[in-house]
Amino acid sequence: MDDGVLYVLLALIAIGVVVTAVQAIRIRRFLAQAVRVPGKVVNVVPENHEFGGSHGQSAETVVYYANFVEFPMPDGSVVKFRSRVEHPRNPIYARGQTVTVVYEPGSPTATAEIEGPAVWRPAIFTALATVVLVLFTLGAKACN
Prior knowledge:
- With 144 residues, the chain is α+β, with helices and mostly antiparallel strands.
- The chain has one domain (3-142).
- The protein is built from three helices and five strands, in the order αββββαβα.
- It has helices spanning 3-33, 108-111, 117-142; strands spanning 35-52, 59-72, 78-88, 98-103, 113-114.
- It has a five-stranded antiparallel beta sheet.
């Protein structure tokens, strides 16, 4: 492997580590300050997503289940939101199911989410991409 390519890969890995750390810190701060309330899944909607379909191959359609949740505010109003939690092929929540919702007190509509993996998703994906880049770099270096 050319030294220039190696330095670029190492720089990308460093950036990935920093971005993952910053995201994790922001998420921890959010969760430390977040209000936790019981919410209710009011609807589970199947949505078709198509994958592939290039170079003469037919596209594969996969059904994902989107969750719509509502929760009460202290003033008695109700906030409804679409969760970023989607699951392929089988719903993971049922209509009427109670879930824990987390949100920032100052902006509940914009920040509400079901507590769990969806909150951590940005840090998880960045960390996984960084690990793949590390493994690629190690493999490429070992082949030289």
